Amino acid sequence: MDKVMSNKKMIALYVLPALLLVLVLIYVPIVLTGYYGLMKWDGIGEMTFTGLDQYAKLVRDAAFWDSAGHSLLLAAFSALSLLGYLAAALVLAGEVKGANLLRKLYLIPMLLSSVAIAQLWAKIYHPTNGILNTLLGAVGLPDTVEWLSDTSIVLLSIFIPIIWQYAGFYILIYYAALKNIPTSLVEAARIDGASPLQIALRVKLPLIAGVAKMTVVLAVVGSLKYFDLIYVMTGGGPNGASEVMASYMYKQAFSSYDFGYGSAIGFFLLLICLAVTWLIRKLTSSEEVQYS
Amino acid sequence: MAKKSTSVLGAAALASMLALTACGGGNSAGNDAGGEAANAGAGSGSAEKITLKMMHLWPAGSSKQQNMIVNDIISQYQSDNPNVTIKQEILENEQYKNKLKVLSASNDLPDVGMTWAAGFLTPYVKGDLFAPLDDVLGGGLKDSFVSGTTEAYAVDGKTYALPLELNITPVYYNKAIFSKYGLEVPQTYADFQKAVDTLQQNGVAPIALGNKDRWTGSLWYMYLADRLGGPETLKKAIDRSGSFEDPSLVQAADEVRKLVDGNAFNKGFNGLSNDEGKAEFLSGKAAMYLMGTWELPNFTTNESIPQEFRDQVGFFKFPTIEGGKGGIDSWVGGPGVGLFVSENSKVKEEAKKFVKFFVEKWGEQSVTKAGVIPATKVDTSKVDLPQMYIDILNELGKASNITLFADVQMSPAVAQVHLNMIQALFGKEVAPEAFAKQHEEALKQDAG
After folding, report:
1. pTM (2 d.p.)
2. What is the number of other CB atoms lying within 10 angstroms of the CB of residue B24?
3. Are the C-beta atoms of B251 and B228 separated by less than 8 Å?
């Protein structure tokens, strides 16, 4: 076996299938998307080369920048919500009664498909029969809030289910990371007289810093390219009030049949995600703490 | 756009964008998806063997009746022409549209397929992908179509598809609610406004509307524009021989604003889908619902809706506005899907023959068997149908004009502007003048 594995040709042979798949399904389309972004193309007829026209249009397109603003807001929101998840995970990882059950409860939204979640929340937000307005009415608060059609609150109404959807995922990641911390370290700190809060902040957090950085990248990039719930719940409406970059791209390509422009937005989105990832890594780069 | 159902699988949609780019090159694809027609009359036949590929969007699961009729017609054609085999490929609405696009990029369209009118069809015609069917229409076939329906598939005077479906949009109303508040079917717009006012004062939502889908609100705007400015004004504004800033088009937008101010629509309509809006009407919470005749089965034959409710539903024509130019028999509506023949088909003549056969047979069966009103004329004295169908078909016979849905008339890019503006208008985020101006700019840009 060792002999096989040290043979360069064999390594290449074994890597090839996966490499081909990744190239054909991911990298080639990325390059093609960038290329289509240089074209004027309705998806059906002839393509005409227009150089950087589509990108120039993109830079001047107020509707796009609105959607980009919404995406960034969502990214900020998701990043902040990580703090909440971390707190929940810290509690769960401590010896709390029922932690096991709670962990499973938090994970349930992860198991639902986005479309099901969207339908569920659309029912909750229903202006006349929705559970939210009914509850508000029952406690004497205004019960005529139009959650998904009032342009001033629609964005917030959509963010909440998105945060809810991913809570379990991040809590699980933090939980696993926290469980990996050797108990000897925690016990040593306790013997030294550290309070639970001190243990959490001074011992546990530094140890899972690597995981935390990764979740920030995941949350921010995931938010920037977010699409599902928004598309199903509001379609980006009313009149673009809840549009994000990905839904705007979809509309341009598949509703307006402007594949050139849609591709340009898609490629731009990729660039933004790469830039943001790089920025986050830069800002959070520090020596990883290791106690052993 | 038949039912305009947007199958919403966000992730899948995004993935398909990648898939599209990935296989746009040389994917020929087989007829592996979907059921294949019974291969009748195999073996016999003196003429050369011909295989016709047909792609359509009526899977047995979701469009059972339509699917059955298609199979019937195909097996009939195959037994009449033993040398012909017809292979079907069936996809759901959205997938169908995407596949059609992929196939046309690789120049591999089926011999016969389905398309929508005007704005959808034009890029395919411009790309020389559809064959003109005027020779098929000659010889009397054209006369069997309701006038104005084939024209929706015409580009530069040539017809590129033959319509199968035709829909108009009456205002359905709940008779029980109307009689409870002593309301009559409104004859004039003033009566209509009074009815709306009475209903909303009594805490009933006058009109069910789900405007997340946007084309639903567009129907209201289109009728107001028609009744105020006559059918030509909007048409001309779109085809650029007129202007969207025509006073009647601005006034129509203002009338929409007045309706919204008068609480004419159910609450939160801009965040509700058409299905959710429809639910307000079906549950008896809203009194009126403006929608296409594709909803007729729900008010007549659909057993899953209580008989009691179905009996309460009537319809009326959008009332005329005093001083306006539009008559009561002018409708908003239009043909749904139509059949095209691929320009690059190797068996074009046979395909044309089949399309003609299909359209004729479809016209005989679709309304009785599937509740779909065909674009060909139906003799109401010879068919056994629920009364509401008979009434609608008779109205169709009297129709003075059918204005094609605005978002279908417009090019896809302008349609998006229109739909967004409709949502903004209903949400009172845009003034009527600005509404018209934005349309005018989008249309100008598109034309230039």
Report:
1. 0.83
2. 17
3. yes
